[in-house]
Amino acid sequence: MKNPESKEAAQNFQYHHAKNKMAHTESEILLSIGHAIAQVKDRISLCNVINEELRKLFYFTHSVILQLSADESFLMGFLQNPGSESKSYPEYERIVAENHSVDEKIMSLILQKADPVVIDLEKEASIARDYIKMNFDTGSKEFLAVVLRRASMNPFGVLTLFSDRKNSFSEEVIRLVQGVSFQISIAMENILFHEEIRQRDKENEILFEFSNQIVAVKEKEDLLNVLRHTLKKYIPYDDCDVLIYNKETRSYRIYLYDVLEKRLTDPVFHSMNKADYPDLNFGRPYHFPQLVDIEDLMRHGVTWGEPIYRMGVRQAVLVKLMYGSDTLGQVVLMSETKRFFTQEHLTLLHKISFQLANVLANLYVADEIRLRENEKSVLLSLSKHMALTRNKCDLQAVMKSELRKLFYFSASEIVLLSEHGERFTKFVSEADSADDEYRDQNFYAHDEISASFVDHDFPLLYDLDLLGKSGRLPRNILSKYQQGAKQMVCAGLRNEKRIFGVLSFYSDLNDNFKANHIEIIHGVANQISIAVANIIANESIELKERNTQILLSLSAAIDKVRDRADLVDIIRNKLNDLISFTDIAITLYNPLNKTYSVFAHNVQEKREFHPEFDSIVAMEYPLNDGIHDVALAASGPVIIDIEDALKNPNVHQGTQFIYDSGIKKMLLTKLTNNDELLGFINILSENESSFSDINFNILKGITDQLSNAISNILFVEEIKRRDRENELLLSVSHAIASIRDKRNFVQMIQRELKTYLLFSDIAISIFNIETGTYKVFLECCEKTVLHPDFIDIAFDEYPIADGLHNHILNSDSPVSFYIEEIRDPEMIHIEFLYQAGIKRVVGMRMEQNDQIIGAIVFLSENDWPFSQQQKNFIQRLSYHMATAVSNILANEKIEQHLSEIKNYKEQLEEEKLYLQEQAGIGYSYRDIIGEGEEMQKVFHLLGQVSFANSTVLLLGETGTGKELIARAIHSSSSRKDKLMVKVNCAALPASLIESELFGHERGSFTGATERRLGKFELANKGTLFLDEIGEMPLDLQVKLLRALQEKEIERVGGNTTIKVDVRVIAATNRDLQREVAEGRFRQDLFYRLNVFPITLPPLRKHKEDIPSLALHFLNKYAKNNGKKISHLSSKVMKQLLAYNWPGNVRELEHLVERSVLMTTGDTIREMYLPKIKTGETRVPDEINLKTHEQNERDYIVEVLNSCKGKIYGTGGAAEILNLKVGTLNSKIKKLGIRKEQIVFIGSDLK
Fold first, then answer.
1. Which of 564-578, 599-613, 982-996 has the weakest average pLDDT?
2. DSSP secondary-structure letter at 54?
3. CB neighbours of 143 closer than 8 A, spacing ≥ 6?
4. What's the rounded Cα separation, in Å, for the pair 556 and 853?
5. 8 A C-beta contact, residue 1201 and residue 1207
6. Are the CB atoms for 983 and 1032 separated by under 8 Å?
7. Angle at 128 between CA 127 and CA 132, to 5 degrees
8. What phi, psi does 440 have (nearest 5°)?
9. How many other C-beta atoms are found inside a 10 Å radius of the C-beta of residue 47?
10. What is the rounded distance in angstroms from the CA atom of residue 399 to the CA atom of residue 386?
11. Is it true that 21-199 and 217-372 share their CATH fold?
12. DSSP assignment, residue 932?
């Protein structure tokens, strides 16, 4: 048994032995690694040595070597283990290509430590960068990192060993890695050294090749070929741009480019080609090529980053080209692949940048030389072309073709400055848009921009974007800016006295005009000034010749003019060659009224066929309308803005009409004849910019000739008018000589006057000076007759003081009024004219033998006035009309006297015939026999009414002697010396009763071959006995009632009323009250007849008178028949007294007459009384059937009664009958319904 000390000694021996053995093994491995590393020539062999040899000492999964950048700001990949599990990671390529800043937490920790550092990936993965997270996600748990240092101990890289196990790197492993790191550092330095040697050789080769090709570059295309075929061979970029730097604007612009073919069709590329880039280096002074990530550009808000990103570019290298200390430009290489460009690419670009700068400088200088030579050539060519320029078109063509060879511009313009410098006029303009609203306008020169370039000798450059945003652009320049112009250069055009115009060039590109362009413009401005002056002189000569030709042509054309239409057509055709306009009109001045009217016109159809046009051109207008008064006060032509004229307080409807129809401007000039104002020529246009270039001299020449032509036309028209008036008055005079009635007078008016005067209706009134009233004597109506109230209004009597006729009465000349001016609610006839559509009236009084007899009034539905010539004609016409009216009145009086004589003659003949008829009737007052009480009552009533004129109604059964009583009343009255005319209403057909009562005119109905007086006229001043009044038809009852009430009648077919004075005695055997109740007799007529009713008793109620009556009839008929019969037997007498006598006295008379004829002795012994059968029914009265027209007439009369005669309006007959007013009036006229025949039952009942 060993003691403890010896055991411990043994253990120590074993430990040191193992340690020594391990150290010996490590030493061998290190020697082996050192030997292997010494053989390393490149990165792959170094990777193999690390993976194969170190794995013999300890476990790890893969290794990575990072290289420190030259500026020691970041670490980049130097060596990646090809067998790493991380290669399966989705973003492996992106992550391993990323650089790692030395300021990162883990990298900073590693670089600060002298010894190797073990990093726990699990702790760092959540907060570390992507490469840590990638290794952790692919299974690594930790890694060991050691700094690789040069001999100077300066770090230049990091070796990292990854493990997928925890605690893989022990102290011994760390110490071992520390030792190996020095050898790996040496190997890495050797590799970098050899790579640098190879890179320098390659660069030298490239530079040699590049230099040989650069030397041969003479043109842009040569440089482009070098970039495309040489540089692209070593750096296979996608796009390459060479940019020129502008010191003045401190911006770059593309000088040449080599791009992918798809870029050539990309609009984004073409827009960028024209753009300026303010600073590609973001303000940082980079001289070494700068690598740019396009996504970073977009994140920094660089303007050109987004468009090239949209084109597909993902990475770019910016190579600044310097010439000494001056920046010439840049070369920009672009790739659609991220992290495409390497450090070697950047180094190569840096080295060739100096040669590129020299070539760019040479090309730029060569371009400048060629540009100057081209400018000289173009300016020489321009000078030659300018010398040949004769008109504006030539000048514009030269500027387009020659000046664009020197510099780009999108539009050019030349404007002329007025003599006093207040207005510009466009002379030549090349605009981008044909819709430039200011292309034909003049404009003021008072804005600050116009004032600035007028005051400077050298051309001025303007930034229109800046001025446009500040709102300082005048309208004419604003239009160019709105069309896309960004810049403007203006140069004054001078003659020996002043600046007379401005030459302007516009560009739709920013920073387009350079300093040399400004100098060129300054140089050509003088040549253009001379050309413009020559053109103006040539145009002036041409204009004078043209004006002379126009005036000569106009003079020849005007010599052939004979009327207004020809004149205005010629003027329009001639002016069309001079100015642009829409309409033309000539107005004449009336010095008496200080008004004007349209003499002639030529206008567009939309105005000529406007419904208001005729009335507009026919009216007279006040001169002070804001248009003609301005022209009158001016010494020459004036241009009127119609919108401004509407603000004039005296604006009239003519101005409003032309404005509403589209007229914007009007050019007016006076027309004078022998220094007296004749009128105006009015040239109208719908274009606001019209008349800007009007030649006032030619216009004056035209107006002088026009004035003479108008004077001649007016003179000819006046002669023709006077001849026409004289001819018309002579014709009227001849016609008047043969006029005998109103009908002929109306025909003459329609035939003669309407061919000369425009009127709708004419009315001739007769004055009653004593009563201060007038009545219409005659109306020739086409307009007012259509009004439904015409008949009621037209022929009534009205006061002379009605607002119209009083003025006519008191005026020696015709008076004219608008109907609205004289409307008066109390003058219903004036209101009627207004309602009928009359707008204007002209009236003149008529005088005969120094006596005012009436007035002639012309009514017009148009509101244009009668001319003064027409009024003069009306005054002359009034004398002839007065003669005609006097003749007609005299003829009417003669005809009235003759008619009265004829009427008296006819009445006497009718009375004679009637008396002869009545003479054969054997009744007389003496024949009334009656001693009984009942008859005494009748005699008493007769005594009361006989001497009065009251209407008497005789009631009683048939045969009671009603006619005998009627004659007794007439014989006892004051009318006994006149006729009592009897009409049996039951004996005549219904169609003839009206004619029988009221008479008829010749031709009023079939069979009416001559005029006949009615019973009313025969009974005038006498008595009319209407027997069987209960049988009268209802429609005739209305006319009878009117005759009784109004005491006037109208013959059938007549249109005049006849006054009658007739006492009416009516008789009936009917119960009229019962007839009224059953609707067969009019209640109002019954009341009118039932003034003094007398009921005659039937014979059966006064049998005591039978003996006397029988003996009376016996003696009468015995004597008439030549028989001697004088007695009645007692038997017969008893039979007579016993009989009931339904036929009353008439039956008794007839029985006695028959008995006389049948008796042979002197005594009547047998009386053959009839036997009345029981159950015998009475034969109904004859049924009175009516025609359809009679029923329609009755219905219309009934409706008119219910409406109280109202025809139209709410509640009128037309509304109730559902008829138009015109249709109802036609039916009333056709059916012969008259106002007098309508009885308002409701009023009577009240």
1. 564-578
2. G
3. 118, 119, 121, 135, 160, 161, 162, 163
4. 55
5. no
6. no
7. 135
8. -110, 10
9. 20
10. 9
11. yes
12. S
**pLDDT score recorded for residue 1123:** 86
Confidence (pLDDT) at 1098: 94
* pLDDT tens digits, 239-255: 999 998 888 778 888 88
739-897 folds as Beta-Lactamase (3.30.450)
Task: List, as one string, the DSSP characters of 978-1016.
Answer: S-EEEEETTTS-HHHHHHHHHEE-TTSSTT--S-EE-HH
* Angle at CA of residue 448, ends 447 and 449, nearest 5°: 95
Instruction: Count CA within 13 A, CB hemisphere, residue 482.
Output: 13
CATH number of this structure's domain 1098-1169 = 1.10.8.60
pLDDT at 594 over 90: no
Looking at this protein, which amino acid is placed at residue 130? D
CATH number for the domain whose boundaries are 217-372: 3.30.450.40
Residue 344 has a pLDDT of 82
Residue given tokens 């890694």 in the structure block: 143
- What is the model's pLDDT at position 116? 93
For 389-430+440-543, CATH gives 3.30.450.40
Work out the end-to-end distance of the chain between its first and last CA atoms, rounded to an integer number of angstroms. Answer: 171
From the centroid of its chain, how far is CA 1045? 63
942-965 pLDDT, tens per residue?
888 888 889 999 999 998 888 889
Do the bridges between strand 117-120 and strand 290-293 make them parallel or antiparallel, or are there none, so unpaired?
A: unpaired
Looking at the domain 21-199, which fold is it?
Beta-Lactamase (3.30.450)
Angstrom distance (rounded) from CA 596 to CA 679: 8
Note the pLDDT of residue 147: 93
In angstroms, the CA 1153 to CA 667 distance is: 112
Cα distance between residue 309 and residue 313, in whole Å: 5
Alpha helix locations (H) across 1019-1124?
1034-1046, 1072-1077, 1083-1089, 1106-1121
Query: Where are the chain's structural domains?
Result: 21-199, 217-372, 389-430+440-543, 578-705, 739-897, 933-1091, 1098-1169, 1188-1237
Tell me the C-alpha distance between 1037 and 1151, whole Å.
Answer: 36
Which of 296-305, 327-336, 894-903 is predicted with the least confidence, judged by mean pLDDT? 894-903
Q: What is the pLDDT of residue 608?
A: 86
CA torsion 190-195-196-198 (nearest 10°) is 130
Q: Where are the beta strands (DSSP E) in 904-944?
A: none
Inter-residue contact 317 to 349 (CB < 8 Å): yes
Q: Which of 314, 312, 315, 311 is nearest to 341 (CA)?
A: 315
CATH topology of domain 578-705: Beta-Lactamase (3.30.450)
Q: Is the pLDDT of residue 1245 over 50?
A: no
pLDDT single digits (tens) 1045-1064? 999 999 888 888 899 999 99
- pLDDT confidence of residue 1: 47
The whole-number pLDDT of residue 1026 equals: 93
Q: Is 1020 strand, coil or helix? A: coil
Of 724, 720, 741, residue with least CA distance to 877: 724
Identity at 995, one-letter amino acid code = S
pTM, rounded to two decimals = 0.36
852: closest CA among 881, 891, 890?
881
Q: Residue 322 is encoded by which pair of tokens?
A: 């310097």
Q: How far is Cα 835 from Cα 789, in angstroms, rounded to an integer? A: 10
Contact by Cβ (8 Å): 276, 253: yes
The mean-pLDDT minimum among 171-185, 739-753, 759-773 falls in: 739-753
Q: What is the pLDDT of residue 148?
A: 92
Residue 466 in 3-state DSSP? helix
User: Cβ–Cβ contacts within 10 Å for residue 885, how many?
Assistant: 24
Phi, psi of 1154 (to 5 degrees): -65, -40
Domain 933-1091 carries which CATH code? 3.40.50.300
| 3-state helix/strand/coil string of 108-125 | HHHHHCCCCEEEEHHHHC
Question: CA nearest 616: which of 660, 558, 565?
Answer: 660
Helix (H, G, I), strand (E, B) or coil at 421: coil
Instruction: Give, in degrees to the nearest 5, the angle at Cα 861 between 860 and 862.
Output: 90
